[in-house]
Amino acid sequence: MAQERFFILFLPLVLMLLVLGCVQPFLAKESQAEKFQRQHMDPDTSTVTSSYCNEMMKRRNMTVGFCKPANTFIHEPLPDVQVICFQGNVPCKNTKSNCHKSSSKMSITDCHLKNGSKYPKCDYETQQQEKFIIVACECVQYETVHFDGSV
Prior knowledge:
This is Pancreatic ribonuclease. InterPro entries: RNaseA, RNaseA-like_dom_sf, RNaseA_AS, RNaseA_domain. Belongs to the pancreatic ribonuclease family. Its main location: secreted. The protein is an alpha+beta fold. It has a domain at 39-136: CATH 3.10.130.10. The protein contains four helices and seven strands, in the order H-H-H-E-H-E-E-E-E-E-E. The chain has helices spanning 2-28, 32-40, 52-59, 78-82; strands spanning 70-74, 89-90, 99-101, 106-113, 124-131, 133-138, 143-150. The strands form two sheets. Strands 2-3-6-7 form a four-stranded antiparallel beta sheet. It is globular and about 40 Å long.
């Protein structure tokens, strides 16, 4: 009787652990669209200081374990960036065909790692500009998933 009770309780426990083991990593993984937003979107900033890149690169986890050499922050509302997926199609740097160029210039900040700067002291040059941007879009929901450049 005790053995039957053990198996009745044990089987659902094992199934629950298997489901949690499969579902939890899936739920915790950052999607490409979420990564794009974390690494590139900063719509609430209009004016940047010389320390902007140092602060933002650290805040957005791009200096964990190494210094990301370059990054661009976009200072426009997310819907204005997402609509680029319906604008001019251009070739991506990696030769894929899912890149699109904005039809108007956007406010951006380019961050470049300064010469001689090494992890863990990542020191960035900050340059605020108005440029056309190129983003890669995912066909399924036309989400921006990658920053490909600015011109």
